[in-house]
Amino acid sequence: MSNHTDPDDFEALYRSYAPLGLQVAKKVLDDPAAAEDVVQDMFLQLWRNPGSFNPARGQMKSYVSMVARSRSIDRWRSRAAERAALERLATEARTSVRDSTDGADQRALDGERRRELLSAIVKLPSEQREAVVLAYCGGQTAREIADGADVPLGTAKSRIRLGLSRARGHLSEAA
C-alpha cells in the first residue's frame, strides 16, 4: 500500500487484511464482538498513525497478525482483571456482611448497599465499568488503565470520572 492516508487505499487495505485480524482476535478472545472491536481499534490506530507500519520491517500480513494478537491479549487480560475485581468486590461484600458485629438490621442495610453498588457498577458501559473497577478495586492508576486499554491518559481519566458519575446516578435512582 503506497499511501495509508488515501481513503481508497486504506479501504482496500482494510478489506484485504481485516479478515486476518478478525481471525487472530477471535482465536484469542473467543468473543466475536470483542474481536471486531480489536480489529476496528487496530485499523483506526493505523489510519491515525500510518508510520506505525514500516514495510522495511516486514509484510502487512505479519504486522496485522502481530498487532491483532497483541491487542487481543491486552483486551483479554483487562477483562480478566475486571472479572477478578468484581469477584473480589462481591466476595468482600458477602464476607463483610457475615463478619459484621453490628445488629441484624445494620447487616441487612450494609448488604443492600453493597448489592446496589455492585448493580450500579454492572450497569455502566463496559469501558467505564472497566476503568472504575480497575481504579477502585484493582488499585490501578489512571496511567496504568490508559496503557492497558491503549488509550490516552485523558480518556482513561474521563472514563473513571464518567463511570463514577453514572454509578452515583444509578445509586440515586435506587434510593
Could you explain the architecture of this structure?
This protein has 175 residues and is mainly α. The protein has 2 domains: 68 residues, RNA polymerase sigma factor, region 2, helix turn helix motif (Rna Polymerase Sigma Factor, Chain: A, Orthogonal Bundle); 75 residues, Arc Repressor Mutant, subunit A, CATH 1.10.10. Helices cover 80% and strands 0% of the residues. It has 7 helices and no strands. Helix 1 packs across helix 3. The longest helix is centred in the middle third of the chain and has 40 residues. The radius of gyration is 21 Å and the shape is elongated. The protein starts with 6 loop residues before the first helix and ends with a helix. The model has no long low-confidence stretch (mean pLDDT 82).
Structure, briefly:
The protein is mostly helical. Helices cover 80% and strands 0% of the residues.
